[in-house]
Design a protein that fits this description.
The protein is of the alpha/beta class. It has helices spanning 17-24, 77-89, 109-122, 134-142, 149-153, 158-176, 184-198, 205-214, 247-253, 286-294, 313-323, 393-406; strands at 4-9, 30-33, 42-46, 49-53, 66-69, 74-75, 98-100, 105-106, 219-222, 262-268, 271-273, 307-309, 311-312, 327-331, 341-350, 353-355, 369-376, 410-414, 422-424. It folds into 2 domains: 4-91 and 204-430, Adenylosuccinate Synthetase, subunit A, domain 1 (Adenylosuccinate Synthetase, Chain A, domain 1); 105-147 and 154-200, Adenylosuccinate Synthetase, subunit A, domain 2, CATH 1.10.300.10. The relative contact order is 0.16. Bound molecules: guanosine-5'-diphosphate, 6-O-phosphoryl inosine monophosphate and magnesium ion (MG). 6-O-phosphoryl inosine monophosphate (IMO) is lined by residues 9, 12-14, 39-42, 127-130, 132, 134-135, 224-226, 229, 240-241, 274-275, 300.
Length: 431
């Protein structure tokens, strides 16, 4: 029995993690976010009603599921409060069910200001960040000058801490970017107000997760972003600022590797990317437009159009190994309905040489040419199909090919955005 499951993205994000966490949380006792922040946008569709979550774990729509924000998350308490108020206005109880680690790095207004100003200054080298202050907040954490949740709960010394931080950041804001300096008093007041609002939610997340494990409860760890956006293993510098891959679960939730039983790697049946950076299989033709249109590929956080391309088996098999993926969940298979021909990238060509793994340096990613294998598509609809034998034969062949090329079995197939539109081949908690 697997009681502890990780759900993470194996591409550049937006693979459909939220939908699958919501689906599996019907049988779970707790859901934990362990990295990232409100740069994430996780979409849940239940009976036609859409909910987009940014910080709140995607188990929140199941009334008995406990929700946790682990220490690895960079936390905008303002964004979290907005999200809670929206959900509570719809009748979803949140505050009694959500617990926040005292060690989360806090996102403050200067982080967002710096993120935006630096992106503008990069011009055509912009990373295309979500401008939510994610990178600058992780920088303050690593530089050991950042605020943590616990600093806002215990206001003693807060003024001194913020003064020290602003002494550093106001210099950059005013001298480098010509902005007005932030006022220490205003920032202290904002921090104290948010700290007071969340005082009852701060708890020992790691300790509670071990209590749940010891009691035989089912816990799910919900990744944000995707493996190719990992700060170490992704397409640096066009990445986010956290470890989105498996190691982030242990450091970001406060659990040991022995508390992970199963890793579900979410992958679209094709690939999308939002923001800048290399994308070897990106399509600029009618096929790309068709994927974007049929897949409704617009960012759930920023509304930006997502870039689309064919499945990249080279990058995917690296991410399967890196994350120890136990099984795949392939999402958006229905988006491929009606394509006459479907391609999978099986190798890259770089300066005339054939590569069967992604390059380890960051600069050659942009020069990779994809080498494709072609497969016949299917004209029948797979939308909403719930059993493998009802899928078009060529769609089944495509899934088999993915398994062979990428080195992991397909355990779930998603055939539409609705919670109910899935084929469960192996139920992760049952294995
Ligand atoms: P996440 O960030 O990984 O949670 O993914 P997003 O929510 O940002 O993006 C996934 C999008 O695809 C959302 O709009 C989902 O409603 C939608 N979606 C998820 N699974 C499927 C699927 O199997 N088919 C289709 N057509 N849409 C899906
Ligand atoms: P979910 O959890 C897709 C991308 C941004 C940008 C880069 C860095 O919904 O899959 P950041 O604001 O993190 O510093 O931006 O990462 N990015 C995402 N792309 N899905 C996400 O989250 C993303 N979160 C960040 O577009 O390219
Ligand atoms: Mg998303």
């Amino acid at each position: 029995m697997n009681n502890s499951i990780v759900v993470l993205g194996t591409q550049w994000g937006d693979e459909g993690k939220g939908k699958i966490v919501d689906l599996l949380s019907q049988e779970a006792d707790a859901v934990v976010r362990f990295q990232g922040g409100h740069n994430a946008g996780h979409t849940l569709v239940i009976d036609g009603q859409k909910t987009v979550l940014h910080l709140i774990p995607s188990g929140i729509l199941q009334p008995d599921v406990e929700c946790f924000i682990g220490n690895g998350v960079v936390l905008s308490l303002k964004a979290l409060r907005n999200e809670i108020e929206k959900l509570e206005a719809k009748g979803v109880e949140v505050r009694s069910r959500i617990r926040i680690s005292p060690a989360c790095a806090i996102i403050m207004p200067w982080h967002e200001m710096l993120d935006r100003a630096r992106e503008e200054a990069r011009g055509d080298r912009a990373i295309g960040t979500t401008c939510r202050g994610i990178g600058p907040a992780y920088e303050d954490k690593v530089a050991r000058r950042g605020l943590r949740t616990s600093d806002l709960i215990d206001p003693e010394n807060l003024g001194e801490k913020i003064e020290h931080i602003l002494d550093f950041h106001n210099f950059v804001l005013t001298e480098r970017f010509g902005m007005e300096p932030l006022s220490i008093e205003a920032m202290v007041a904002e921090a104290l107000e948010l700290g007071a609002y969340f005082a009852d939610q701060v708890a020992d997340v790691s300790g509670r997760l071990y209590e749940l494990r010891d009691a035989g409860k089912r816990v799910m760890f919900e990744g944000a972003q995707g493996s190719l956006l990992d700060i170490d293993h992704g397409t640096y510098p066009y990445v986010t600022s956290s470890n989105t891959t498996i190691g982030g679960v242990c450091t970001g939730a406060g659990i040991g590797p022995d508390a992970i039983d199963y890793v579900l790697g979410i992958t679209k049946a094709y690939v999308t990317r939002v923001g800048g950076g290399p994308f070897p299989t990106e399509l600029f033709d009618q096929n790309g437009e068709r994927l974007a249109r049929r897949g409704a590929e617009f960012g759930a956080t920023t509304g930006r159009p997502r870039r689309c391309g064919w499945l990249d088996a080279v990058a995917l098999r690296r991410m399967v190994r890196l994350n120890g993926v136990s099984g795949f969940c392939v999402t958006k298979l229905d988006v491929l309905d009606g394509f006459e021909e479907i391609k999978i990238c099986t190798a890259y060509r770089l300066n005339g040489e054939l590569l069967d793994a992604p390059p380890l340096d960051s600069h050659s990613w942009g020069d990779l040419e994809p080498v494709y294998e072609s497969f016949p598509g299917w004209s029948e609809s797979s939308r909403g199909v719930t059993s493998l034998d009802k899928l078009p034969q060529n769609a089944r062949n495509y899934l088999k090919t993915m398994e062979k090329m990428c080195g992991a079995p397909v355990h779930i197939v998603s055939t539409g955005p609705e919670r109910s539109e899935n084929i469960i081949i192996q139920y992760p908690y049952d294995l």
